[in-house]
Here is the input.
Amino acid sequence: MTAVHADGPELRAKVATACRVLAARGLVDGVLGHVSARVGEGELVVRCRGPRERGLARSGSGDVWRLDFEGRPVDLAEGYAAPNELPIHAEPMRARPQVGAVVHAHPRAALLAGLAGLAPRPVFGAYDIPALRLALEGVPVFDSPALIDSREAALELLGAMGERPVCLLRGHGILAAATSIEEATVLAVNLETLLAVTVDLARLGAAPRELSEAELAALPDLGAAFNAGLAWRALAAEAGGA
Here is the structure.
């Protein structure tokens, strides 16, 4: 079943809130990064740059506009421009019917981990169980620092990403793709938490043991009610969203 959201003020406000969450959590800086949601057959809404740009930290629903997967505007206002990396949103949606939202950000820990070749390991538990799950399932790496500004580049990225919901783009940033804006945003935040711990441990020269099977079995799967519910609402409130 294809994950499609109903376009309208509420959805566009949610995309803007996600952008503010990324900024509040340090995953984006200035105007670098974007969030999108699928709204129809071959169409999406995405955070665009406008004539009175104030950065992602001050995103509003008026910064979110509708385009098709080829970048042709559906209701793009005069003076606004779609992201050059629109294919990083369109191609995951085109390839995966279950993807209804995409987050692309430039977090610092992701940058450092990718450049240093650090692979996250399942070394913590209840500190952040969703972030631990990402380590257990593996974080794929796309080994290119280039912009994803063409369909060909996006397809190469998807080849590296496989079936995982997240990917680290070496020397560039991260991609999170999920059914909803809430889930994709929380995934991006959890990934940065995991990579920040990975980088800090490398700085300390520490190599803690991985969790045992018994320890892993004792940790619950918190599920979507937590990851895309409680966690999202807390992040949105922190960033000044509804």
